[in-house]
Amino acid sequence: MKDLFLMFNSYNIRARISAVIILIAPILLEFYLMVPEFRELSSTIVLMIIIFALCNIFIIYSRILGVKAMKKCFPKIMPAQQFLLPSDNYINEKTKNRYYKFLSKKIETFNTSELDEDMVSTAVTWLIAQTRDINKFPLIAEENINFGISYNLLGLKTFGIILSILGLLINILIYILKIKTNLSINISYNTIFIVIFINLLFLLFWIFMVNKKLVENTGKKYGRALLSACDSPLLN
């Protein structure tokens, strides 16, 4: 089973698949708690195979929705490009000049006297290409993954809220029916309460923790980490 997931790189697993797993986590936990058969090893293996089969679809849709969410957070320009513009003050002038000097040596078309959005975008694209090795640039890889998780979660936020609310309503209804009509369901009240609590926690998570500010903060951290590669001895 482990070998199945080795087919996906760490970015896909952590930034995309993990976002979708968080989305469907209340449903998976509910089935595990309320359907005894799902606790059996054979059922768990079948469930894992099904999840694996859907991973490619999850990656496609989470990427589409995530990119849309990211563009809403950064409609004009991405943080790394923004930080390189002379008009931006996020990075101090001394550090920025050092980055300019490095980029001028590495990129023939990079001209500090003609810095505009196209120029800094070219520079950032070059930096991304040079820092893809996660073993050589672990901090950049980590911040990139954190950024990816945040905007993919934001893209799935509406679906997460809907699923959590549905889970709450369905289980509250089961609880009411069990009390009022003595509904013959082999589920204890404690299990129902736990499932309701889980759905409530996920609802609060989607509402209060997954937001535009989260994406903006992780995006800035990734941008700063990416630009710091200009000082790395691996590129100098």
Task: Write up what this structure looks like.
The chain crosses the membrane at residues 15-35, 41-61, 159-177, 189-210. Keywords: Membrane, Transmembrane, Transmembrane helix. Helix 2 packs across helix 3, helix 2 (10-34) runs parallel beside helix 8 (157-180) and helix 3 crosses helix 7 (138-155). The protein has one domain (1-236). The protein has helices at 2-5, 10-34, 41-73, 79-84, 93-106, 117-130, 138-155, 157-180, 189-209, 212-227. It is mainly alpha-helical.
Computed CA radius of gyration, to the nearest angstrom: 23 Å
Report the total helices: 10
* Structural class based on helices, strands and sheet pairing: mainly alpha
Ends: how far apart?
A: 42 Å
The total domain count is: 1
SSE order in H/E notation?
Answer: HHHHHHHHHH
Please tell me the overall pLDDT: 87
| Sheet with most strands | none
* Fraction of residues in β-strands: under 5%
